[in-house]
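Late entry, evening session. Most of the bench is empty. Finally got around to the prediction I had been postponing all week. Sequence below, unchanged from the version circulated by S.P.
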Amino acid sequence: MVVNELNALNVQQAVTVDGDVEIRTGGNLVLETLTAGAGGNALLVSGGNITQTTGKLGASFLEATANGGIRLITAVDSANISASGAQSGSIEIFEDDDITLLDIDTVQGAIEVLAGGLIEAVDVATTGAWTALTSR
């Protein structure tokens, strides 16, 4: 599934049975439920913020890039996440279980990852405030 939007976008539900989900927006991206089924990957690119306050993002691999901040509720195996634009903000990830952080970075904000299992941090960097990786 591929969605391209020039402006902001609210996604209530995006689900595939056995494929990837790719969403690109020129403005803010607000998610509720996103499921890339059967080992599928999720690619999110936003010209603004990427936010999620309800629902869950499920995928094997997540790649999220935003010009603003990123806040996601996830059930993913591994992730590359970048808040790297001129308006970049904090990165907040709330993971159900184990997660491998392959490449997580932000220019101006903090990084916070709270996981229900183990966190493997390969490359995590911020020039902003602070980094907190917490396993429950």
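Two things to note before I forget:
The chain has one domain: 2-128.
The CA atoms of residues 35 and 92 lie 19 Å apart.
Will write this up properly tomorrow.
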